[in-house]
Amino acid sequence: MSKNRTIANLGTGFVNITDTGTEGTKVASGTTAQRGSTTGQIRFNTTTGLAEYYDGTQFKSIDSPPTVSGVNTNNFESSALPTNIVISGSNFASAVTVTFVGNDGTQISAGTTTRDSATQITAQIPNTVTSANEPYDIKVTNTSSNLANTLVDAFNIDAAPVFGVASGSLGTILSGASGSNLTQVTATDDEGDSITFSISSGSIPAGLTFNSNGSFSGNASNVGTNTVSTFTVQASDGTNTSTRQYTAQVNAPTYVQLSGSGTWSVPSGVTSAEILIVGGGGSGGRSPNVASGGGGGGGIVHRSSYTFTSTDIANGIAYVVGAGGTGVGMNSVQDDESNATEGVGQYGHDTTFAISGGTITAKGGGYAGGYDASAYRPARPGGSGGGGAWNYLSGASSNQGTFSGWTSYGNSGGSFVNDGNQLNGAGGGGAGGAGGGATGTTGGNGGAGQLFSNFTSYGASGYFGGGGGGGNDYSSTGGSGGTGGGGAGGHTGNRSGSNGTDGTGGGGGGTSSNGYNNFTYKGGDGGNGTILIRY
User: Pseudo-torsion of CA 325, 330, 335, 337, nearest 10°?
Assistant: First the structure.
């Protein structure tokens, strides 16, 4: 007959006991109050429902710790606290505690804790959790075993905005170019708050404005050398801020001035440019018995930023720069009216720039009215029209064409004023304004040229296409040439008209007469046109 025995009944000679059964070995069990105090004891605690052992100092439960794997959201508005956070994981005991641990080690207990299941806990974040110590870890402790696990950097309070553009260069633009070509600074906010941007230190390129939405506007001021600006951008959601350092570069432009004719090759790496095309100025009028009008300035076509096509880059761009019309008189030059050497004047020549989409043409200026020893002649149209003279009174109109994406400039010449015997000439039209009418005391002033602020080192300090002044028969003051290279009109002190300035497309000045059939003076030459390219 068998008898149950304790290990104590079997004596002290047993070492490394092996249980050969399959169901398990039953150890002592009892409540927490029934614990012993011998080091190495193993027992089942019926109070906690866990096996435990005594290490000589305390009993420790034998269990798997909880696993904390995630939360339902990782950012909270401080204004919304207290609020609940849902924690997911596994092995959550029936009794758990939740602690929020700041980045400085501060521990704050959850306001309330509800164990929804072995895989989910709902805990309340109290309003004592602030953004000062974010990000916060979440520590879950199974109360029965005192075993715990932590989810690191689980959530933030009022998280600062996160930049979407890496620190460094926001781009490079040319002097005078729009700041909109720089990269816009962006950022996101976990709470969905609106973000405003500002410059907290340093400075952006002169001439630009940094907007609260992170974009740039305005045009960069001209620089003599390539210039890098360094600045720090602050992004704010109204509570928290983030900063990041950026740079922006403004390059001094490269200028090319074309003359004559040929094919211009687009330099390697250049994709766009500002282009200014100016026709040749018309000559001033010449007449042996009345004062003549001024020549019209050359027409102008401009584009602030033209993007070169692959064809432009591969084949180059053919061009012709128009010469100014030559003033007639004392030089065996035939006019364009009747091919007479004792004639009126000459048109300025067209300037052309043959981009892949079609040829852009700046028309040559028209010549002025006058007399060619056989008949009185009217002023003729051109990029800007010539000024009127006796007895065709009206100035000529502009025939400058337009081109999609480009801006064209040209105006009419001034009209002759029949003021008794004082037959003075009217001013030629300018790219920036119509020619002035003649009066009884002076010839008409040439129309103003057009200013292009990025080309102030060229033309007449940035002005192009000024009209020529009208001649004056009765005074020592002829009509003034229009700003932009227009020649002055002749007068009693110098009856020949002054030449327009080359490279401006300015019109030539008209002559003053000195008695019938006196041919010892000439109309002013029109100034040659130009093509300017800035990139």
Answer: 130
